[in-house]
Design goal:
Number of strands: 8
Largest sheet: 8 strands, parallel, barrel
Distance between the termini: 13 Å
Strand content: 15-25%
Order of helices and strands: EHEHEHEHHEHHEHEHEH
Bound molecules: 2-phosphoglycolic acid
Helix content: 40-55%
Radius of gyration: 17 Å
Strand order of the largest sheet: 1-2-3-4-5-6-7-8
Number of helices: 10
C-alpha cells in the first residue's frame, strides 16, 4: 500500500496578504490535483493574518491550511498573541509549534512549546512539532539527547490529552544547521534519528497515529537525496514552497518515488 505523504509549506514571514491570496488562487488547481490523490496531503502555512483569506480560497479543495504558531494560553491579556481557538476559527487545521526560529528569536522553551501543544490538541487541531539540534550540539554528539529533551514535555502533554481526532500528529525533524543553508544530513543520519523517534514517540502514540517529516533545505536539488529513509512520511518545506513550480517538483518527485 502507498504511504500517505504529507507536504507542509512553511511560508514564514514571506508572502504579504495579497501575495498569499493570489498564490493559492493561481495554484489551487495544481495543489488539488495532488491532494485529491489518496496518498497525498498538503498544508499551506501562511502568516496568521492571511489564514482566513487563504482558507476561503481553498474551501472547496482538499488542501489544508495551517498556522506557524499560536499562544500557549487559551485567552487573556496577551497583547499581540493569537490563541489556537482563534486560529482554528479562521480556518487552520494544523499549527506548527516549536520551530527553531521561534525557539531562537522568541526564546520559546520546551515547556512553553508543550503548553502550546496542549492548546492545539484541546482545539482538535493537529500539531506539527518541530525539533532539531544545532551544529554545536551535533558536533558534540548530542543530537538524540537534544531531541529527547525537546520532546519530553510534549509527549507528556500528548499522553494526557490523547487526541480524539483520527488525524495523525506530526513531528518534523529539522536540524537547525540545515534550515536555509543548503546543507542536508545523510540518509544514515536521518535513519538514526527516525529510528529513535519511532521508538520514543511510539511510547505514547501508535506508529500509524503520527507522521514523521524532515525539514531543512528541502528543494528540487536535494529531494532525491532526502527520499531514502523508510520511516519518512513527508517534508516541511520553507524557502522552496514560496514558488509553486519549485514546490510541485518536490511533491511530484516524492509521490512518484514513494519517498
Ligand atoms: P528551509 O526551511 O526549507 O528554507 O530550509 C525549513 C523550515 O524552516 O521549516
Amino acid at each position: 500500500m502507498n504511504k500517505h505523504l504529507l507536504f507542509v509549506a512553511n511560508w514564514k514571514m514571506n508572502m504579504v496578504f495579497n501575495d498569499a491570496v493570489s498564490f493559492v488562487r493561481s495554484h489551487k488547481q495544481g495543489l488539488e490535483t495532488r491532494t485529491s490523490q489518496a496518498s497525498c496531503s498538503v498544508v499551506i502555512c501562511p502568516s496568521l493574518h492571511s489564514i482566513y483569506a487563504v482558507k476561503q480560497e481553498l474551501k472547496n479543495t482538499s488542501v489544508h491550511v495551517g498556522a506557524q504558531n499560536c499562544s500557549e494560553h487559551p485567552s487573556g491579556n496577551f497583547t499581540g498573541d493569537v490563541s489556537a481557538t482563534s486560529v482554528s476559527q479562521a480556518g487552520a487545521s494544523y499549527i506548527i509549534i516549536g520551530h527553531s526560529e521561534r525557539r531562537q528569536h522568541h526564546h520559546e522553551t520546551d515547556q512553553a512549546i508543550a503548553a502550546k501543544c496542549q492548546q492545539v490538541l484541546q482545539n482538535n487541531l493537529t500539531p506539527i512539532v518541530c525539533i532539531g539540534e544545532t551544529l554545536q550540539e551535533r558536533a558534540a554528539g548530542r543530537t538524540l539527547d537534544i531531541l529527547e529533551q525537546q520532546l519530553a514535555p510534549v509527549l507528556e502533554v500528548i499522553k494526557q490529552n490523547a487526541p480524539e481526532s483520527e488525524n495523525r500528529l506530526v513531528f518534523a525533524y529539522e536540524p537547525v544547521w540545515s534550515i536555509g543553508t543548503g546543507q542536508i544530513p545523510t540518509t544514515a543520519d536521518i535513519n538514526t534519528v527516525f529510528t529513535f523517534l519511532v521508538e520514543h514517540i511510539g511510547t505514547v502514540q501508535p506508529r500509524e497515529r503520527f507522521a514523521l517529516l524532515y525539514g531543512g533545505s528541502v528543494g528540487p536539488d536535494t529531494v532525491a537525496d532526502l527520499c531514502g529513509p523508510p520511516e519518512l512520511d513527508g517534508f516541511l518545506v520553507g524557502g522552496a514552497s514560496l514558488d509553486f513550480q519549485t514546490f510541485e517538483k518536490i511533491i511530484d518527485y516524492a509521490l512518484s518515488n514513494q519517498l
